[in-house]
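From the thread on structure requests for the teaching lab: each student submitted one protein with a one-line request. Submission from student K.M.:

"Model Carbonic anhydrase from Apis mellifera, tokens only."
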Amino acid sequence: MDKIIKGIMKYRKCHREEMVKQFQKVKDCPEPKAAFFTCMDSRMIPTRFTETNVGDMFVVRNAGNIIPHSQHFEDELAMCEPAALELVCLMNEIKHIIVCGHSDCKAMNMLYSLREEELASKVNRRISPLKAWLCAHASNSLTRFQQLEISDFRDPILFQDKYFTTITKYSFLWIFKKTIGKA
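Reply posted by the TA:
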């Protein structure tokens, strides 16, 4: 905690004034160009490795950089990821959505382990909020990954949303190699 408190104090003393100027500059007319969904892992610092500043992009973080399917939500159970997509795409007309994973992601490693029925059981989900989150919101991704495994990673994953008519093909082979160490 000392390091964090000292960092806050240093920021206030050395960097705050410049940041306030940046905030004032974009206060009335921010022009973000993208939305960046990434993992909450402490090693992920999106504004640093994208070299972006205040107002350049929206950033959404969660365990495993997951964007749950909208079918999982009812009015009172809405989560921030689909709300962020609505804010970004519909209200701000942002056309660039970046989903950025990383190597050795604990959430993705756990998701991969949930292929085993016992680990994904209701009993285990009740004792682990992360397992429950992954089972509820990433099971489709796990199923698609298993389909890729069966095809020996030759077929791309197809993503389609009912609001967007185009189908975009992505090959995530390199992400899966880095995440679970499969060739």
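TA comment: The chain has one domain: 1-22+30-174. The domain at 1-22+30-174 is CATH 3.40.1050.10 (Beta-carbonic Anhydrase; Chain A).
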